[in-house]
Write a structure and sequence with these properties.
- With 123 residues, the protein is α+β, with helices and mostly antiparallel strands.
- Helix content is 30%, strand content 32%.
- The protein has helices spanning 29-44, 88-98, 109-118, and strands spanning 2-6, 11-20, 23-28, 49-54, 63-68, 74-77, 104-105.
- The strands form 2 sheets. Strands 1, 2, 3 and 6 form a 4-stranded antiparallel β-sheet that branches. Strands 5-4-7 form a 3-stranded mixed β-sheet.
- Helix 1 (29-44) packs across helix 2 and helix 2 (88-98) packs across helix 3.
- The longest helix has 16 residues, at 29-44.
- The radius of gyration is 14 Å and the shape is globular.
Length: 123
C-alpha cells in the first residue's frame, strides 16, 4: 500500500493506479473511485474520449492526456482495503466535464463544488 502526503487535506492519502495500454497512472484512491464510475459510464455507452490531468511539481509538472476507448483495456488498482464514499456533486461535475469537447478533465473535490455552484443545473 502506498501513501502520499496530501497538502490539500493535510493527511496521508492512499494511492491507487489507473492502468491503460501498459502504463500505470497514479491517483489518490478516492479520486480514482470517482474516475472509475465516470469512465465506466462512458465506455459502457461505447464512447471514446480523452482523460486529462495536471501533473504536480513532484512529477515534473505539465499535463497528461490519455485516449480512452472501449477497445483498450482499462483497469483500476486500489491500494486501500475499504471503498471510499461517493460524493454525488463530484460525480456530476466529472460526468459533465466528460461530455465536453475537452473530455474528462480531472478536478479536485473542492473544484467540483465550485463547478457545481457555477452550474446549478448539475445538482
Amino acid at each position: 500500500m502506498e501513501f502520499l502526503w496530501s497538502p490539500t487535506c493535510g493527511m496521508l492519502s492512499i494511492m491507487g493506479y489507473l492502468i491503460h495500454g501498459g502504463h500505470e497512472y497514479e491517483f489518490e484512491d478516492r479520486l480514482l473511485l470517482h474516475l472509475k464510475f465516470v469512465i465506466g459510464q462512458k465506455l459502457r455507452k461505447q464512447e471514446c474520449f480523452f482523460l486529462s490531468w495536471h501533473r504536480g511539481t513532484g512529477e515534473g509538472s505539465g499535463r497528461v492526456s490519455v485516449w480512452l476507448s472501449p477497445y483498450v483495456t482499462v483497469a483500476f488498482r486500489f491500494s486501500g482495503s475499504r471503498e471510499p464514499e461517493y460524493n454525488q456533486i463530484w460525480l456530476k461535475a466529472l460526468t459533465a466535464l466528460a461530455h465536453t469537447p475537452r473530455g474528462l478533465v480531472v478536478i479536485s473535490e473542492d473544484d467540483a463544488e465550485r463547478y457545481a455552484k457555477k452550474n446549478p443545473d448539475l445538482v
